[in-house]
Amino acid sequence: MALQDLILDLQKFWAGQGCYLAQSYDLEVGAGTMTPDTFFRVLGQRPWRVAYVQPSRRPTDGRYGENPNRVQKHFQYQVILKPSPGDIQDIYIRSLASLGIALADHDLRFDEDNWESPTIGAWGVGWQVLLDGLEITQFTYFQQCGGIDLAPVPVEITYGLERLEMFLEQKDDIYDLDWSADVTYRELRQREEREFSEYNFQAADVDTWRRMFQACRREAGRLIERNLLLPAYDMCLKCSHSFNLLDARGAISVTERVKMISEIRALVNQIAARFTAEKEA
Amino acid sequence: MEFLLEILTEELPSSHIRSARAQLEEKFRRELEGARIGIQSLRTLATPRRLIVVGDFAAGQEDREAVVTGPPKAIGVGPDGRFTQAAAGFARSHGVPESALEVVLTPKGEYLGFKRTFRGTPTERILEDAIPRILGSLTFPKMMRWGASPFRFSRPLHRLLCLFDGRSLNVRFESLTASDRTVGHRILSPGEIRVSGFAEYQARLADHQVIVDPQERKSSIQAQIAEKLAPLEAQVYPDPGLLEELTDNVEHPLVILGSFPEEFLSLPIEVLATAMRKHQKFFSVVRDRKQLAHFLGVADACEDAKGLIREGNERVLRARLVDARFFWDQDRKVPLAKRAAGLRDVVFQEKLGSYEDKAKRVKKITGYLCDKLEGGGRPKKEAVEAAGLCKADLLTEMVKEFPDLQGRMGGLYARQEGYPAALSEAIYEHYQPSGLDDDSPPSLSGRILSLADKLDSIVGVVGVGIEASGSSDPFGLRRNAHGVCKIILDGKLRFSFSLLLDRVLAVYGDRLTVARDAVKRYVLEFFTGRLRFILERRGFRYDLVAAALGPGIDKVLDVLLRVQALDALKSSPQFEPFILMAKRVNNILRDQPPGKVQPDFLEEREERELASTFSIVERNARAMIARGDFEHAQNIIFRLQPVLNAFFDRVLVMAEDKKLRQSRIGLLQAIQKLLAEMADYSQVVVEGDAAAKSGPAR
Fold it and tell me: Are the Cβ atoms of B315 and A111 closer than 8 angstroms?
């Protein structure tokens, strides 16, 4: 089974659970959680079910295309169900079975792991799901987002697609994965990993990205004042990516790190507060 | 009668399971005792998805006879001996005939009353009432909500099974209604099971691949490990914490023996152990204390017939080790000394500056300590150089990936670079001990560097106004203070703590925001409290600890030596009379202005005797005190007791003659001063205390 078959199967499975199949968001994000289809939709009362593939960029994880397990961009399969169904663990287990995994031959574990993203003022309680010791999913009951307590509580299921595919293909090297019958992950991604690693770690211009961070931060503030909350949130995502790049360049001290994260969080929290107030009004 | 409760949940963290079991046992006991229900037995069991309470309780409360009192006899019984209107009204209001009334004697006098039997409530009712209250009151370090309910628990709740004497109890909690059913293993046997008692519950769940008794799961893991390792003639590297955690993580343990390529054995054992034990929760396998290329994992499964679980785990570990080797190779390309320059950009604490600033301070403190420690053989050059390098590993990839290895990686890299052992050991050990149960650094250079680093942190943190309070200790004040005490006590390091604090304060210069004398006072008080805690924890009597702390903590080690001396001598026949005598000296001198011994005024034989004995005792005892030999010193000081006794018997301290009185007081004050260097004897509790207090003071 190739990676695209895995995606197709998950799409089919979660559509069957009543999820709307969103398309990937078109900005750089560190995780599927950060895209508007999750961020704005977990706020407020309205029930919501969505699933989508989201490319996720983590510049510091780059290894020049040489490490068999780490990449600066990977693909997440993100599922949000709000409110969390009572039998969500069973549903999730069925999703694995639907991929043809004979769970009775394996060791499936829900291992304590509480997730938090200080940048978007979000945290949750849950597990990393381990399959024979391999982390294939982050499973989280979202408690807070944008600094706001979530009620009803959404559950977020994030599959690491490459991890899961490595398990399914029993391969040790991410680049050996098949994306389709005749295209490999290496073909698609290795050059990108090499060039972006060099960019993230060496070539990215620190001043440019610092200015980018500041410009997007100001822009976000301005847009919030005009109540253009979705564009304002995009600007926060750009801040977050600028921050990640500067971090990969080793340009951020520990105090600066705390300060920059709290600056983004303050903006995101304002957006969440206004968005929620609007809905309730 | 048998009680069984199972709370079926989603997978609970191991620490929450432990806490919930303790809470459940305590709360059930309290509820039942409060309701006067006899408890034959009560215990808790658990799996990652189940919290279980099993008990044997009485069927109900005992019927109880109690007296209901009414009006006083004087009002209720008329002069004719018959009941009055008041008595009749009282009987009527309680629905009993007047004939049931009788005279009862109460502490307030004679009253009219009657005996009534209260029917006991059946345990069933009590439990039905108590269980929702108990479940609602369980707390966890981190709680969560789920679905649309505001209720909070450790993880979502799914079912309640609740039986008393074979019947299900009528219990509702949140959206759940208790029943006599549960389910088996999530993957292996998920069907529903109906039971009527604990034995059946345990057996049926075992059929469904769930072992409910943690003790049984633990023994099973140990037995399987032994069986797997026997052919290899190897042993498991003991890790009791990991064993507990894994026992809590599975419903049906299956031990998996896996291996990794031998080439990774070239990685430091510290790295292998962290990758295996911390990250993958594997046990290490050793033979003759040497690491083998094997590991033991615990799966939640029945069998691994196809070897898929083993292969999967091997693949994950291999990936981790590939990463670790990459870091190990990369990190060694940059020498520590060069890397240390980058510490300028790493903030230690906002007001206290960068790690480079810290390293500079720690170098000075380390040098000072090397000069001041009593005894020889101090590796000053190496320790000071180590201080400059010890934080450099914070910037290595390995420590970023495995933060637990901080310090140890620095030591390993230093060794690789060919630095002398005293230097690399100092770096390796300088975070030790991590708590009171961790070992002190084995090397002297490690002890010195660890002391210097910790004291720099303590003084700095206090100096910018951060204090430890209650359970909150975000900057590790308590942990660091325990580390300092432990190193001093274990290493028998003798130096003036007070002068060291002065030195650390001087090194900080004007960086601190709190006044120096206030910082010093706080740190000394804080350490006094910590030493009290540590010594009592070691089993010394609290009063002896208080006595040993009396002379202060300038030499931290001496507090231990003093309490050891008191402890060693507490059963000797001289001890109690001596303590009583010391207390008597204190009592007499209370509120006395300073006197002065005048040899010319030593009139009586007993006081001349006391003065001459004291001058010998003082000289000898002080020599012993200076060496820290408090047991010897104490034995010498015991000699004062008989002469003091004779003195008190024959000599009137509070003499009419002022000069005489002042001279005698002066002599006793000199004795008191010497005693105060040994201990605060007034803290010591002895049996003769009561007698001594009532005795006359002359």
Answer: no
